[in-house]
Known about the structure:
Helix content is 45%, strand content 17%. The protein is of the alpha/beta class. The chain has a single domain (2-241), classed as FMN-linked oxidoreductases (TIM Barrel, Alpha-Beta Barrel), CATH 3.20.20. The chain has an eight-stranded parallel beta barrel with strand order 1-2-3-4-5-6-7-8, surrounded by eight helices. Helix 4 links the parallel strand 4 and strand 5. Helix 8 runs parallel beside helix 10. It is globular. It starts with a helix and ends with a helix.
Amino acid sequence: MDHFNEVLKKHNAGYFVLIDPEQCEVAKCAKLAREIEKAGADAILLGGSFLTNDLHPIAKALKQETELPIVLFPGDSMHLTPYADAILYISLISGRNPNYLIGEQVKAAPWIQRYALKPIPTGYMLIESGNRTTVEFMSGTAPIPRDKPDIAGPHALAAEYLGMQMVYLEAGSGAAHPVPDQMIAAVKNQISIPLIVGGGIRTPKIAAEKVDAGADFIVTGNVLEENGAFELMRDFANAVHG
Length: 242
């Protein structure tokens, strides 16, 4: 969290790039990490909803290639590695599946301690995006309707009152639509902890709009896999930083 707080002191908002190990072999990931740092991103998130590749060599390669923090973004308790700096210790508070509210967290806790990872307790909220996303299917939960900011706000506030350090509004990988500005603003108005927004953010202009609505950190992933990396990441970083 110290690094994230420093980012917010320096910039209008922070920019994270998500690397999905399923979409990235070791050599490709290492090259991408160098480009992410050069483009001006503030951290690398590593993870995904469904993982079959060995995470350790990919994470180790990232650590060797960049000075940026490597933050795990796990789909479940098996998505852990010692070759990272921190972990978004997420609880899926938008759903009512106990396994993703607390079950996976309990299984992961001893390994997080063993690997000396810095846990960042994060309230994770799925927001309806126009299509069914992988995380919805894998978690067996329904997202918060995108036209119900009055539902999203109290969920985020509950996360803060439970002691979580961040809230993450997630439209999902490959989302048809990003989290609405109105919902971002409503959530930000109810919490005092940093707000992450990701999913469906396909252009730097949209990223800047989400920051203006109240996002403290923007996450992109799929759009970079689809459209190439460096120049687009640089444009995203500039738009987010303001």
